[in-house]
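Severity: low
Component: inverse-folding endpoint
Summary: output formatting inconsistent between runs
Steps to reproduce: submit the following structure tokens with default settings.
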């Protein structure tokens, strides 16, 4: 399996287990997350780009991968994604660079899916 399939399979499996725990708090957090990225005053594309850049600054590789997948789904070009990740690296500083490397690798893999 490749990076993208491995990530999506694991994420789905673990999300199912988490939801099976029947925790009201966790279900509400997941629901809030889903609703936050819905169309509103900002369009979905803008929200996904915000999610991607914040995830890079916060150095959450799983979140970066998730938002890169969504960025592909909503039609961002490689140039747009790279520019956004450049801004995130500027804001986050050089400590973001290892995560940027993995983000570039994952985006590249997404282009082959």
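Observed output (run 2 of 3):
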């Amino acid at each position: 399996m490749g990076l993208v399939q491995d990530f999506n399979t694991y994420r789905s499996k673990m999300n199912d287990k988490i939801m099976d725990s029947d925790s009201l708090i966790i279900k509400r957090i997941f629901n809030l997350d889903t609703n936050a990225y819905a169309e509103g005053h900002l369009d979905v594309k803008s929200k996904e780009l915000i999610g991607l850049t914040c995830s890079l600054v916060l150095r959450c590789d799983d979140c970066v991968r998730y938002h890169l997948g969504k960025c592909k789904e909503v039609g961002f070009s490689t140039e747009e994604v790279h520019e956004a990740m450049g801004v995130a690296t500027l804001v986050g500083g050089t400590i973001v660079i290892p995560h940027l490397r993995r983000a570039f690798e994952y985006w590249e893999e997404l282009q082959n899916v």
